[in-house]
Amino acid sequence: MGKLVIFNHPLMHHKLSIIRDEKTGTKDFRETVSEIGMLMAYEITRDLPTVKIDVKTPVGVAHCEQLKKEVVIVPILRAGLGMVDGITKLIPTAKVGHVGLYRDEKTLEPHEYYAKFPPCITEASVLVVDPMLATGGSACHAIDVLKRRGVTDIVYVGLVGAPEGVARLQKEHPDVDIFLAALDEKLNDACYIVPGLGDCGDRLFGTK
Ligand code: PRP
Ligand code: URA
After folding, report:
1. What's the whole-model pTM score?
2. HSE-CB of 23 using CA atoms within 13 angstroms
3. Omega into 163 within 30° of 0, i.e. cis?
4. How does pLDDT run across 53-65, given as a tens digit for each residue?
5. Residues in the chain with pLDDT < 70?
6. Helices then strands (H, E): number in the chain?
7. Residue 39 buriedness (CB in 10 A; 0-12 / 13-18 / 19+)
8. Does 161 sit in the ligand 2 pocket, CB within 6 Å?
């Protein structure tokens, strides 16, 4: 089973309180989601493989390490886009692929409308990014798409998860580590996360 990491840090708690607040407007919501993405990037990259290299400094030779593989961030559209900017602040060389999914309001099944990935993705360390892990349908679908293309090194990065979504992702993709800023109580009848933060895509893009 992959690991489940829930961030426990005062800065994270503070920023979560901002995005959860229904009074927070588009500008602050978007900025804070991006900041949380940046904070999470440090921890989710902790296990990235490195290679040893010697670097000539002005006064000698330093034994250093550099990242061994490319990093590819795959946001699930739309809401995943909100975290990309923050993560690329820490990993500026990361490539970005996209999976477009929307959750059908009645069936709650994910529908795919877009997929485009950099050619290096099969050899890369891939971060699947989506703020909300509700039923887990979207996350599982996006990871299925990547695995069908031959991607093997995948972690999932989200802001708020529900126990139902975590259980489904762990069951369908036991090899994938899960990183969340918070694990909430449950899903409501419409499969929204409680207490959650509402519809993340709508709050990021001001569409409601
Ligand atoms: C939201 C969210 C996830 C999905 C989570 O996207 O960003 O992708 O729902 O729900 P699930 O775990 O039950 O699949 P939505 O379908 O609302 O699309 P959007 O990002 O375009 O708003
Ligand atoms: N999608 C969201 O944006 N919010 C939820 O709570 C569940 C799915």
Report:
1. 0.96
2. 1
3. no
4. 999 999 999 999 9
5. none
6. 6, 13
7. middle
8. no
Residue matched to tokens 């139902």? 164
Query: Does the C-beta of 199 come closer than 6 Å to ligand 2?
Result: yes
- What is the rounded CA–CA span in Å between residue 170 and residue 165? 8
134 in contact with ligand 2, CB cutoff 6 A: yes
Which residue's CA is the closest to the ligand 2 atom numbered 4?
199
- Give me the amino acid identity at 12: M
User: Which amino acid is present at 152?
Assistant: T
Question: Atom of ligand 1 at shortest distance to CA of 134?
Answer: 12
Q: Which atom of ligand 2 approaches the CA of 134 most closely?
A: 7
Extract long-range pairs of 142-147: CB within 8 Å, 24+ residues apart: 142/74, 142/76, 142/99, 142/101, 142/110, 143/169, 143/172, 143/173, 143/176, 144/172, 145/99, 145/112, 145/115, 146/74, 146/99, 146/117, 146/121
For the segment 191-201, what is each residue's pLDDT rounded down to a tens digit?
999 999 999 99
